[in-house]
Amino acid sequence: MPKEKKTLLDFWEEQMRQSHTASNYFFRKSPSHYHMMLLVMSAHKENKKLSVEELKTKLFKTSRPKSALIITEACEKGFFRLEKTSADQRIKNIIPSESFIDEFNEYLNTLKNISY
């Protein structure tokens, strides 16, 4: 087996071994879960605020009630937290937790180091 395929295969197998742990499992439950993670982390990386309502609107082919359930569960599990804005207390922004930011960065670094 060529080295690059073995490296990618090893990475995939490692991910699957962790499939029932924390964020690795949660954000792979459905395309909506994965899309939410990417939207939140993209906003974080770009230093942009992302409100709950904006996130519900941006989630592709996901009902607002389903979006709300996923957001609530992500917050309960400690991946995200909600932060009220000072200008309008009704608006809540979604912020990734420090531990999730670390996990996400580690995941990206691993992907970057896989040679093709």
Describe this structure in words.
With 116 residues, the chain is mostly helical. The protein has one domain (3-113): Winged helix-like DNA-binding domain superfamily/Winged helix DNA-binding domain (Arc Repressor Mutant, subunit A, Orthogonal Bundle). It is 61% helix and 9% strand. It has 6 helices and 2 strands, in the order αααααββα. It starts with a helix and ends with a helix.
Give the CATH class: Mainly Alpha
Largest sheet: 2 strands, antiparallel
Low-pLDDT stretches are none
Order of helices and strands: HHHHHEEH
Cα-atom Rg, whole angstroms?
Answer: 16 Å
- Kindly give the count of domains: 1
- Specify the CATH homologous superfamily: Winged helix-like DNA-binding domain superfamily/Winged helix DNA-binding domain
Secondary structure layout plus pairing:
Layout: H1 3-17, H2 22-26, H3 31-45, H4 52-58, H5 64-76, E1 80-84, E2 92-96, H6 98-113
Antiparallel strand pairs: 1-2
Short description:
With about 120 residues, the chain is mostly helical. About 60% of the residues lie in helices and about 10% in strands. It has a single domain, classed as Arc Repressor Mutant, subunit A (Orthogonal Bundle).
Descriptive keywords:
single chain; 116 residues; mainly alpha; Arc Repressor Mutant, subunit A; two-stranded antiparallel sheet; 6 helices; 2 strands; globular
